[in-house]
Amino acid sequence: MSSNSIDSGHLKSFIERIERLEEEKKALAEDIKDVYAEAKGTGYDVKVMRKIVSLRRQDTHKRKEEEEILDLYLSALGMG
Amino acid sequence: MSSNSIDSGHLKSFIERIERLEEEKKALAEDIKDVYAEAKGTGYDVKVMRKIVSLRRQDTHKRKEEEEILDLYLSALGMG
Amino acid sequence: MSSNSIDSGHLKSFIERIERLEEEKKALAEDIKDVYAEAKGTGYDVKVMRKIVSLRRQDTHKRKEEEEILDLYLSALGMG
Amino acid sequence: MSSNSIDSGHLKSFIERIERLEEEKKALAEDIKDVYAEAKGTGYDVKVMRKIVSLRRQDTHKRKEEEEILDLYLSALGMG
DNA sequence: TCAGATAAAATCGCGC
DNA sequence: GCGCGATTTTATCTGA
Question: Domain map of chain A by residue range?
Fold first, then answer.
């Protein structure tokens, strides 16, 4: 068997791993949609919920960046 | 306990479910990135791989549509 | 003159407006790069500066979203 | 006044210059979007327009490279 | 169903 | 030259 076919097999396995992961990812996206739909059915405003999730995500992200810049400062001061 | 606080608790639980799902989704996105990186390290061209995955996704999508059309035809013919 | 050529002329003018705007945009991107370079020459750490700019941008963005969600709340309460 | 505070003031002015430039850049990006929207309202296909702009940009880039190569040749021949 | 908004993917460009 | 961050383009989703 040529090295070419070996490589092809390897490539195929990479592709299939990716496709499996993307399927799982897609399933999660649908789960999320379902939760929003369920919440909507219970009387909640989806738009508001999305905004809340967004703001909380920003908090997390901002905190992480603040920690990073603190590290940068400490490094600059020779304390890292 | 007021209905308001009950609702708030319920909303909170919806939000937290969504956030958990989004974390899992994000983790999968990183897994996918990792696989691409690993393939790259093995000598594959990531851009080409993405193209392959994309084409195969289109095929899948197209096949599904064709199956749906076939189902429609069969139903229309009283054979579904 | 055919309607076709009139349309073409119109399209051309749209394209040219866009290209002019994109040139200006590109020039600004270079101006920004120049300022970073100048600051670096004065002894500042570009990475830190970028992080500061990023954090301040996040502040602005978050404030805007907080105002939006406040509007959503007020609307939901019939006070919008 | 310590050199530290002088530096801080200078840093602040760099940051503010950058932020002003970025605002202008963002405004231009919106102008561009507006032109596309206007063209769309006139019946043009935005996707096609983007493709045209992109192709023309590539042409420009290619021509510039060719001119640079020509310059190199001329220099090499002692004619630059 | 379509426009408009939102999020994701792909591409580009910079700094290290 | 490679990773990383920003930008741009594409796809998805929501509301009218």
Answer: 1-44, 45-80
